[in-house]
Amino acid sequence: MSSVETVDHRKIAAIEPDVTYSPRSGDWLVYAPSGARSNPLVLLRQSLSNFWSTRELAWILFTRDLKSQVRRSFLGYAWLFSGPIMTAAMWVFLRSQAVVSIDTKIPYPLFVLSGTILWGLLRAGFDATVDVYSSDILKKLNVPIEAFIARNLANVAFQFLLAGIPLSCLFVLYQYRLPATVLLFPFAVVGLVLTGAAAGCFLAPLASLYGDIGRMTHIVFMGLMYLSPVIYPLRETGWLGTLMHWNPLTPLLNVCRELLFGGDAQPLLPAVIMVIFAAGMLSVGLILLHVARPHIIARKGM
Amino acid sequence: MSEILLRCDHVGKKFCRDLKKSLWYGLTDLAGDIVGSPPGDLRPEEFWAVDDVSFDLRRGECLGLIGRNGAGKTTLLKMLNGLIKPDTGKIMLRGRVGGLIALGAGFDPILTGRENVFVNGSILGLSKKQIHDRFDEIVEFAEIGQFIDSPVGNYSSGMQVRLGFAVAAIMIRPEILLLDEVLAVGDLGFRLKCLNLIQELLEDAAVVFVSHSMQFVTRFCTRVAVFSEGQIICNSHDLSQGLQAYYTQCETQLKVFGNTAARIHNEKLRINDVEVLDTEQAVINGDDELTVELDLNLEPGLPEVELRITIEDFSGHPILAIKPEQRAHLRFTETKRSVRLDLGQLNLTPGKYCMMFAVVTVERMERLTRKAGTLEFQFGGDHVEWAAVIHETRVRCA
Predict the structure, then answer these.
(1) What is the ipTM, given to two decimal places?
(2) Any chain A CB within 8 A of the CB of B131?
(3) Chain A contact for B115, CB < 8 A?
(4) Which position among A173, B12, B75, B86 has the lowest Cβ density within 10 Å, counted as fewest Cβ atoms?
């Protein structure tokens, strides 16, 4: 599956007897055409160890972007959560004008803001992997791709922390008391982000070759949002109800929200299955990102 | 002999001329990679960007890759760096691979030079501590001084490149070193410093050096490989042979500037007083007498003009000029002249040369016409020296 494999000395000697070995250098690194598959598990282990070995680089890249963004704009991070707030505010307004009627157990502003923020995090997780090839550095230097994924995920984490600000404002406003389950909330969010990231991995090679994919995902995400309990809760009846019911994102979003606000309408199992499935897909996706990288650079790299 | 650190074994890489097809092939190649089927033959619109390239490189050797643009040098370098995979053959490397490529990668114009050094160093795979330890050395080498705490966006382009070069060249100590046209950096003073630093890097490493500057190739390389259309057409330890192969790929270009007030035409080369009719035959040796003939047409009413003649080497550097005292014979006021110059025996290093003629007014040094790249000839011989002129010397040792 990949071209990079380490070969032991005897194997080389069999091919080319005149190679002299140095006792102090390590094994040969071989770049060969595809077809010489190596074990996907080895690749996955390599990928995961890259996350560890490039943690410093990922952090430096993250802080670089952070500083750069703060220095070049007045509002800085306010922009990161302006999208979810705007969408939420719009729906609160529409509902107050009786354009739509949405009944929620918790105050609607809390419901819709938490929904749009969660959706934003899912989208950010998706973008964290789908855009990973767009970095110029990756095309010019042999830097592990994991550093860039980790950098992007760190950005998502930061976005998550920032999203706490408008949410806590609303909590104070509504004098809402957080249930104990809120401690589990970050874990659920991690599951949500990883689900997005897993989907992103699979589209990343295609998206970097064809611009159509980027436009398409934008539309798909918009459509999906209306089939998920983001702006209104899960419908019990009708076509929409059926679609929302079968939407695999529904249990995840519901669990996230219930951990934050209490409630036990959503069974945990589907959400857990979904996260496990996403983690599996993410592992496959990471391997795919590795295998695809040289192909992408060969076609798009300058 | 020292050990082999790099081996290219029948390496090939296909590229596609058509963008749409290229993207599609990329996708199918990826799919093939996943199911494990090897890449096949050329598809429509494809060509071999690197074609069946094989060589070994040992520790301490420096291989110069030369060739015209688009010959496949950079593609090969990308494969050596592991950015793209070969379609045929294989590349084997042993030891740390590093390069002076993409200098200043990751620089953010908003951040200060100091911050960017850490970003760039980290991208090159260095730890914060390693960079911190040699930070002062980097700043000193780059001659950035107190600007190190200014945003890189405010640097001049030269300063940016210097800083990028300093980080990479001071911090990395690879065993396989890849250099891609990095020496054309900064002003003359800085360039000399770079050369010395690179000389240090070369020791004990296997080096692949891509350059269009024959001056640098001859200075650093122990071997050259000449690329043409993806293939190595000459791979030799004899640099002169390689350079010859490179030069023969390039055509001299006749360049004529100036107005019609003065016109040089009908120029001819004579070897031992025999007129050369075909450039193929224009081969001279140390004991041949060279003569140049030309016709000069001047518009009536021009002030006194002087004819200048220079022999240039293949890259257009002037090699040989006429003694100033003899130039008095090359001043004219009449409208039409035939000129014959006996240059006598020349002592040049083997290679291709050509002539440059110019007509200037004597008083105001105004250039009326200039004709370069004409009367191409080859100086024969086996052994190429790096100096252009070979001077006979008598040696006496006490």
Answers:
(1) 0.80
(2) no
(3) yes
(4) A173
Structure tokens at A186: 């970050």
Min distance B224 CA to chain A CA atoms (Å): 21
- How many C-beta neighbours within 10 Å does residue A255 have? 26
Considering CB atoms only, which of A21, A72, A291 is closest to B3? A21
| 8 A C-beta contact, residue A3 and residue A43 | no
Query: Tokens 């767009």 sit at which residue?
Result: A134
Give pLDDT tens digits for B47-86.
Answer: 999 999 999 999 989 999 998 888 889 899 999 998 999 9
Q: Is B40 exposed, middle or buried (0-12, 13-18, 19+ CB in 10 A)?
A: exposed
Angle made by CA atoms A222, A227, A230, in degrees to the nearest 5: 80
Using N-to-C axis directions, what is the helix angle for A145-173 and A268-300, rounded to 10°?
A: 140
Report, in this order, helix, strand and coil percent for chain B, each rounded to 5. Answer: 30, 35, 35
Give, rounded to a whole angstrom, the gap between the first and last alpha carbons of chain B: 37
Note whether B72 contacts A: Cβ–Cβ < 8 A: no
Per-residue pLDDT, A7: 39
Q: Quote the CA–CA distance of B209 and B215 in Å, as a whole number.
A: 13
CB contact under 8 Å between B122 and A67, yes or no, is: no
User: At B283, which helix (H) or strand (E)?
Assistant: strand B283-284
DSSP letter for each residue of B39-79? P-SPPTTEEEEEEEEEEEEETT-EEEEEESTTSSHHHHHHH
Strand order, beta sheet including B97-100: B97-100, B176-180, B206-210, B62-67, B223-228, B231-236
